[in-house]
Design brief:
Structural class: mainly alpha
Oligomer: single chain
Number of strands: 0
Helix content: over 70%
Shape: elongated
Number of domains: 1
Length: 157
């Protein structure tokens, strides 16, 4: 009975280590999703503005209808400058996007559309970098967690 309990405990420690390693990767995937969705939002707003002369508030009202965009936290935004930038984004990207968004008011539609396209490209590049980091972490951290669980199981045995 004692051997079975030790084996079960060791297996439990391995699984706990695997779960811990997997949970470490989650924020990276969340940041990737937010940046990718923000790029999609900018592309969507560019598409709307290219074919319709809408104000910033009207653009946001239409964007809120998409559940993915709502998960970014845009439902309470009244102006484009209030669009939240994901916290996981680099500080340089965050400040550049915030500056672009704040300077959009009063600009011609052509300038705003070009800014949306540029910001979408910046967000997609950042999202791709975060995706690569998340994939590397997904390969590394669960294995390290399992190794830590195995080490604890060996030490406890």
């Amino acid at each position: 009975m004692s051997v079975c309990a030790k084996l079960f405990g060791g297996a439990l420690l391995l699984v706990a280590g695997l779960g811990l390693g997997t949970s470490i990767c989650r924020p990276l995937f969340s940041c990737w999703w937010q940046l990718h969705t923000l790029a999609r939002l900018f592309t969507y707003l560019d598409g709307l503005l290219t074919y319709q002369q809408l104000t910033g508030a009207e653009l946001l009202r239409r964007a809120v209808q998409d559940s993915d965009f709502r998960r970014l936290g845009i439902e309470n935004c009244k102006t484009l400058a209030e669009i939240p930038i994901p916290r996981g984004a680099d500080e340089a990207l965050r400040s550049e996007l915030q500056q672009e968004l704040s300077h959009m008011a009063g600009q011609p539609h052509v300038v705003v559309c070009a800014a949306f396209r540029r910001m979408a490209g910046l967000c997609e590049d950042a999202a791709e970098q975060k995706r690569r980091q998340a994939e590397a972490a997904r390969r590394l951290w669960p294995r390290l967690g399992m190794c830590a669980g195995a080490l604890v199981a060996i030490l406890v045995w």
